[in-house]
Write a structure and sequence with these properties.
The chain is an all-alpha fold and about 325 residues long. The chain folds into 3 domains: about 65-140, no CATH class; about 145-240, Receptor-associated Protein (Up-down Bundle); about 255-315. Helices cover about 80% and strands about 0% of the residues. The protein has 14 helices and 2 strands; from the N terminus they run ααββαααααααααααα. It has helices at about 5-25, 30-40, 65-70, 75-85, 95-110, 115-160, 165-175, 180-195, 200-210, 210-225, 230-255, 255-280, 285-290, 290-315, and strands at about 45, 55. A two-stranded antiparallel sheet has the order 1-2. Strand 1 (about 45) and strand 2 form a beta hairpin. Helix 4 (about 75-85) packs across helix 6. The longest helix is centred in the middle third of the chain and has 46 residues, at about 115-160. It is flat.
């Protein structure tokens, strides 16, 4: 290779590296990051009135326009997007769909040499893991919200009783209450300050947190704004009602404890019985594991056990949320 080619490739490398550094500095500059965060948070859009503006949330499913146009027609993407919001995940629905596809494809590749039933189980199982993880996150977040919500309502009532306006009391709860209550009220207060209607921001908060207690709170606030009344007394009544619901839920769990324990015992008993028999006499259960009929019997028994556990759990579980 001649020195001319060496100089040419070196110059090209330096040019590409310098361009990359300049682009990275431009993208990561504080002003650029602040501008991007404001755009993501507000998403200002003009209405028919040129003076009025509406602050809307970016609800695109993916940052890739072609993929966004493809998946926005699917109703399941709306549910997935709502699940991501309720789990307080920053991931878009498009990225989550891609992760689900990759996990399902991994399960299919692992089970290539297995039978069709194993392929279905592994593919569906690995593909559903991201959704299960999101549901667990949403459940934990909802439980934390419900636990701290009555105290936050008392804090808001005390602030209003001291002379603060409703939006100032909401700001106080956003700053003082523990997360996720503080986070949600702070976000709602900021959206209200940016110009959104109080009804819109409160209803959007009920979309982010799927709680019956929060829906009761929002309904009472909106009715009070339309019909009037003593707001502090309404908040005190709501807080009392929620705490009474907690007591009722505790009583329900006490009354159904025997049924839930029966489901656990009946579910674990066959597994423990097989383990004890295998330890005492390993040859006794060998036909079940080596014969084709035994495989079908194990499969049917496992299905019936899971079905029975779900039925008992359905009977003793009372929906209160």
């Amino acid at each position: 290779m001649t020195p001319l080619f060496i100089i040419f490739f070196a110059a090209m490398g330096l040019t590409i590296a310098g361009t990359g550094i300049l682009i990275a500095r431009h993208v990561q500059s504080p002003a650029r990051q602040l501008s991007r965060r404001i755009e993501e948070f507000t998403g200002a859009q003009k209405e028919s009135d040129p003076v009025a503006h509406r602050i809307v949330r970016d609800q695109s499913f993916s940052g890739i326009p072609a993929l966004n146009r493809l998946v926005e027609k699917l109703s399941v993407m709306r549910k997935l997007s709502r699940l991501l919001v309720q789990a307080d995940s920053t991931m878009t629905a498009g990225k989550m769909l891609l992760i689900i596809f990759i996990m399902a494809l991994t399960g299919l590749l692992i089970s290539l040499r297995l039978n069709l039933f194993s392929k279905i189980i592994l593919t569906a199982g690995l593909g559903s893991l991201p959704v299960i993880h999101l549901q667990i996150q949403r459940s934990k977040r909802l439980k934390a919200f419900i636990r701290a919500f009555p105290d936050s309502i008392d804090m808001m009532a005390s602030a209003i009783r001291a002379g603060h306006a409703f939006n100032q009391a909401m700001h106080l709860v956003g700053n003082e209450a523990p997360d996720p209550v503080g986070m949600e009220f702070k976000r709602t207060y900021e959206q209200y300050n940016l110009g959104l209607n109080l009804k819109d921001v409160l209803l959007e908060m009920t979309e982010r947190v799927d709680s019956q207690d929060l829906k009761l709170f929002v309904t009472a606030i909106l009715l009070q704004k339309e019909t009037g009344g003593n707001l502090t007394e309404i908040l005190d009544k709501i807080s009392y009602t929620i705490r009474e619901r907690f007591k009722l839920i505790g009583q329900i769990k006490t009354f159904t404890a025997q049924g839930r324990m029966s489901a656990i015992v009946l579910g674990c008993l066959p597994v423990a019985f097989v383990a004890i028999l295998s330890g005492l006499n390993p040859e006794y259960l060998e036909p079940m594991f080596h014969d084709k009929l035994g495989h079908w019997l194990i499969l049917i028994s496992a299905f019936l056990q899971v079905f029975g556990f779900l039925v008992i759990n359905r009977i003793v579980r009372i929906k209160y949320q």
